[in-house]
C-alpha cells in the first residue's frame, strides 16, 4: 500500500486562540502520546500547566503565562522530528539552535508531504487536493470566517504577545503560505496549458476534417462532370 501524509495548517494566532477556548471548556490532551525515541517525557521535561483534572475556566492571560504550554508553536513541534533536538529534553542544545533545527525540520517535512492545505484558503485547498489526487469532492468547501477564535476580541499588545509565543509557527506559516500559493498558481497554469493544448488539438482535427470534405467534394464534382460527358 502507498500511504500519503497530508495536513492542514492554520493561522497561528487563530489556532492558538481556538485551542485556548477548547481548553477553557475542559479539553485536555491527557490521552495524547508524547513518545519520542521510544519513551515518554518525564514530568521534569514536560511539566503540566495545571493541577487537578483539567484547566477549564482558565483566562487567556493564564494560558499565555504557562512556560510549558504545548499550545506554543504546536504546528512546528508536530511537524518536526523531535529526536533531532533530544525530544523534550531542553538541555541537549542551546535554545536558539534547537529552534532553528525544529523549524528547518518542520519546513522540510511539510514540503515533502503529498499534500497540505491552509484553513484560510478552503476553496484553493479543495482545488489542490482534487488535482493532486485526481478525485473530486461531492460538494465545494465552505469558507467559514466566523469561528470561536474570531469571536475573541484581543488588543494589539495581546496579539503581539501571542505572535511572540508562537514565533516559530508564524515563520512556518509564512513559508507554508508562500509554497501553497506557488503550488496553486502552478496547478492553475498547468490546467490552462492543458485546456489550450486540447483546444489546439480539436482545431487541428476540425481543419483536417474540413480539408477531407473539400477534397471529397472536388473529386465528386470531377466524377459527375466526366460521367455526364460520356453520356452526352
UniProtKB/TrEMBL annotation:
Q: Which domain of life is it from?
A: Eukaryota
Q: Which UniProt keywords apply?
A: Glycoprotein, Membrane, Signal-anchor, Transferase, Transmembrane, Transmembrane helix
The enzyme's main class, written as a single word, is transferase
**Cellular component GO terms, alphabetical:** membrane
A GO term for molecular function: heparan sulfate 6-sulfotransferase activity
Reactions mediated catalytically: alpha-D-glucosaminyl-[heparan sulfate](n) + 3'-phosphoadenylyl sulfate = 6-sulfo-alpha-D-glucosaminyl-[heparan sulfate](n) + adenosine 3',5'-bisphosphate + H(+)
Record membrane topology: Single-pass type II membrane protein
Region of interest (Disordered), ranges: 212-232
State the compartments where it is located: Membrane
The catalytic activity of this protein is classed by the Enzyme Commission as 2.8.2.-
List the Pfam families.
Sulfotransfer_2 (PF03567)
What's the stated role of this polypeptide?
6-O-sulfation enzyme which catalyzes the transfer of sulfate from 3'-phosphoadenosine 5'-phosphosulfate (PAPS) to position 6 of the N-sulfoglucosamine residue (GlcNS) of heparan sulfate.
Q: Which family does it belong to?
A: Belongs to the sulfotransferase 6 family.
The protein's name? Heparan-sulfate 6-O-sulfotransferase
